[in-house]
Amino acid sequence: MRKVPVKLGERSYHIITCYDQIDTLGRFIARLSIGRDTVVITNPLIKRLFGNRVTSSLVSAGITVKFELVPDSERAKSERYCLRLLNNISRFDNSRRRLFLMALGGGVIGDLAGFVASIYRRGIPYIQVPTTLLAQVDSAIGGKVAIDLEAGKNLAGAFYQPRLVFSDASFLKTLLRKDMLSGLAEVIKYGIIMSPGLFRFVEKDYGKILKQDKKALGYMVYKCSHIKAGIVEKDERDNKDMRVVLNLGHTIGHAIEAAAHYNRSYNHGHAIALGTIAASFISRELGLLDRRDYSRIKDLIKKVGLLTDLRRIDARDVFLAQEHDKKFIHGRNRFVLPVGIGRITVRESIPEALIAGAIAALYKRDTGI
């Protein structure tokens, strides 16, 4: 068990990284003195897999537990389910309760539960207990919470920090391959933006990772948690041009998700992998990224099993969707671009023709472009 501090003054908290120690969760929460009644927001599958152990740990620490279930898909991050949760929580709440929320699940659950916590009674405490690789290495950390709107992903959101992130890597043993791949896209992102060592680790040991080797999983979760905590500490609210580095691949990646109407064929990991290739293409065309590093990025994405080409979505729909991206600044687009493994730059006002070219290149298979 290792602790990663996220130092944000009065909003500071710890990320606990461990393996098969969920039974200690209740004790960690009790020490925070944030309440004695919790609403656990999760989906039916995760409740079936982990609900009994989580409940036992919480009850043994004197915490009452109520579960609220939402669908196992991106559609849970909607106005409909947000309002449903708010109403159900309000019916459970009363003057005798000291209420906090718990997000038990992947990125969708974490975003939704965190957003609900941020607006219910103008903010109540919440805990992140991520159960997917993507959530443990990325989305559960840093306090970005949101729901989707018709125009795009995460357009209604807030910065609202959890009081604890409890990442038990043994949860990952239950993941399907596609869900492991979704998280690996974010791990590769961390390697590209800040850690050549992490990138090399995935290049060398991706086989162990995909076989869910205990040591490999533990290293990735801890390393990525440590990197993201450091970035969040320096730029909590994404207004100092430091946290923006975490958006590598997300501008076009989110556009792909929106253009695909959040179809499971293009889950978050595949979309971000494709967005990373597109950003690398733009960087190479601008003369910022050499061909060797471009090839390493694209080859690693392909080797681990993530998508490297786009199908069944109209390129124009992707282009139009990226124009709704919330990373636009004063009407100018903004892209995080790799300039090497472990180094990035942020550029604004990328020509539309170059963006369209990067999207078009995603439809060309194995061309080396």
Note down, in words, how this protein is organized:
The protein contains 13 helices and 11 strands. It has a 7-stranded mixed sheet, with helices on both faces. The protein has a two-stranded antiparallel ribbon with strand order 7-8. It has a two-stranded antiparallel sheet with strand order 10-11. Helix 9 crosses helix 10 (268-285) and helix 12 crosses helix 13. The relative contact order is 0.11. It has helices at residues 25-32, 44-60, 79-92, 107-119, 133-139, 177-194, 196-210, 214-234, 250-259, 268-285, 291-304, 315-322, 352-361; strands spanning 2-6, 13-18, 37-42, 64-69, 99-105, 126-130, 144-149, 152-159, 164-168, 334-340, 343-348. Strand 5, helix 4 (107-119) and strand 6 (126-130) form a beta-alpha-beta unit. It folds into 2 domains: 2-174, Rossmann fold, CATH 3.40.50; 177-211 and 248-361, Up-down Bundle (Dehydroquinate synthase-like, alpha domain), CATH 1.20.1090. The protein is of the alpha/beta class and 369 residues long. The longest helix has 21 residues, at 214-234. The termini are far apart. 47% of the residues lie in helices and 18% in strands.
